[in-house]
Amino acid sequence: MIKVYGQVASRAFRVLWALEEIGLEYELVDAGPQSDTVRAVSGLGKIPALEVDGAILTDSVAIMTFLADRHGALTFEAGTVERGRQDGFTERVNDEFDALLWMAARHGRILPKAHRVPEVIPSLKWEFGRNMERLAAEFEGPYLMGETMTIADILLGHCIGWATLAEFPIESEKMQAYGKALRSRDAYKAVRAKA
């Protein structure tokens, strides 16, 4: 049985969403970052962690990539041009959206107060909005890779949800509709129901 260590309101959401989309059975071990439960399986103490075949995998994108490759779902085949494009979108979302959201969270509430620089948050929001507008200009839909949903969509869908909660700008109606369509998926709703 696959075990996911983490919490729904974290990057573990992405892994759970991918598992639901693929249709795999799993157990969610509800544990927070740096908890004894998580540190017992991963020295980093970060979530999510995935236990499979007697091994522990970490990092939400690495875990989703593993699951997609193993089960031939939510991905294009390795070595194809389509997979290269998909990987490009995945890295772009990580760099241009996830990294900005994480930096804002760290400077807004996670880092010790003496190390926070909240003045950087407006700059991060501006950059996020600019990046979203550039992506919107290229986006043809219904997914990043056209007709095929991939892990890059799960990653971006999670970032759009996070951005909404953190009051980051998503002014493009096209990208708002894309986010809404992703949130309407049964797999997404199944994970939200676990919260």
Using brief descriptors, characterize the structure shown.
alpha+beta; Glutaredoxin; 4-stranded mixed β-sheet; 8 helices; 56% helix; Glutathione_S-Trfase; Glutathione S-transferase; Glutathione-S-Trfase_C_sf; transferase
Q: How do the strands and helices of this protein lay out in sequence?
A:
Elements: E1 2-6, H1 12-22, E2 26-30, H2 36-41, E3 49-52, E4 55-58, H3 60-71, H4 81-110, H5 121-138, H6 151-165, H7 173-183, H8 186-192
Parallel strand pairs: 1-2
Antiparallel strand pairs: 1-3, 3-4
Mean pLDDT: 97
Class computed from helices, strands and strand pairing:
alpha+beta
Q: How large is the count of helical segments? A: 8
**DSSP E strands, number:** 4
- Uncertain residue ranges: none
Percent range of helical residues: 55-70%
CATH topology (level 3) name of the largest domain: Glutathione S-transferase Yfyf (Class Pi), Chain A, domain 2
How would you sum up this structure, described in words?
There is one protein chain. The chain is α+β, with helices and mostly antiparallel strands and 195 residues long. The chain has 2 domains: 2-74, Glutaredoxin (3-Layer(aba) Sandwich), CATH 3.40.30; 81-185, Glutathione S-transferase Yfyf (Class Pi), Chain A, domain 2 (Up-down Bundle). Helix content is 56%, strand content 9%. The protein contains 8 helices and 4 strands. It has helices at 12-22, 36-41, 60-71, 81-110, 121-138, 151-165, 173-183, 186-192, and strands spanning 2-6, 26-30, 49-52, 55-58. It has a 4-stranded mixed beta sheet. Helix 1 links the parallel strand 1 and strand 2. The two termini are 21 Å apart. InterPro entries: Glutathione-S-Trfase_C-like, Glutathione-S-Trfase_C_sf, Glutathione_S-Trfase, Glutathione_S-Trfase_N, Thioredoxin-like_sf. Residues 1-75 form the GST N-terminal domain. Keywords: Transferase.
